Amino acid sequence: MEHPQVIDPGHPLVERIRAICLAYPEAVEVEAWGRPTFRAGKKIFVTVSASMDHPFTFVFKPAPGERLAYLEEPRFYSPPYWGPGGWLALEIDAPDTDWVRVAEIIDTSYRQVALVRQITALDSAGGQNGPERLV
Questions:
Q1: CB-neighbour burial class of residue 104 (10 A; exposed 0-12, middle 13-18, buried 19+)
Q2: Which stretch of DSSP H or E encloses residue 101?
Q3: Secondary structure of 19-61 in the HEC alphabet?
Q4: What values do phi and psi take at 10, rounded to 5?
Q5: Strands lying side by side in the sheet with 35-40
Q6: Would you state the pLDDT for residue 113?
Q7: Would you say domain 12-134 falls under CATH 3.40.50.150?
Q8: pLDDT at 81
Q9: Percent of the chain with pLDDT over 70
């Protein structure tokens, strides 16, 4: 059964998330469940569009201890299917979206699933791989 496309992969918000995600070592984009997913090798670190009702969101894996703090903010929520595993979603269609923060969240999510060699490659460039350089 083929899933319907949840969001246009060429939408500017998807393009912006794509640019951030694909800058990571061994990051690839794979369409799954009608959505763009970004993976560190085989492991997903970002999925665009938490649900049909929330297409302009992205799903990420927060660092341990950050989840509850994020949930205190209205743009963050526990998405269907992913939420029970500790993942969160963030609304990104607001004009005041803080893209430096989005990049920092993506960086953390990548580090939660990446292999040691991928994190080593990321960190080997020193400060040149900071998330703020990606926005």
A1: middle
A2: helix 99-113
A3: HHHCCCCCEEEEEECCEEEEEECCEEEEEECCECCECCEEEEC
A4: -95, 0
A5: 27-32, 35-40, 43-48, 57-60, 88-91, 76-77
A6: 95
A7: no
A8: 82
A9: 87
For 91-117, what is each residue's pLDDT tens digit?
888 888 899 999 999 999 999 999 999
N residues, the chain: 135
Q: Tell me 13's DSSP state.
A: H
Give the pair of three-digit tokens for residue 58: 């992205």
pLDDT at 56: 83
CA distance 73 to 89: 11
Give the HSE-up count for residue 77: Cα atoms under 13 Å, Cβ half-sphere.
Answer: 12
Q: Which of 18-32, 52-66, 74-88 has the highest mean pLDDT?
A: 18-32
So where are the chain's domains?
12-134
Give the three-state DSSP class for 77: strand
Residue that the structure tokens 């469940």 belong to: 33
pTM recorded for the entire structure: 0.87
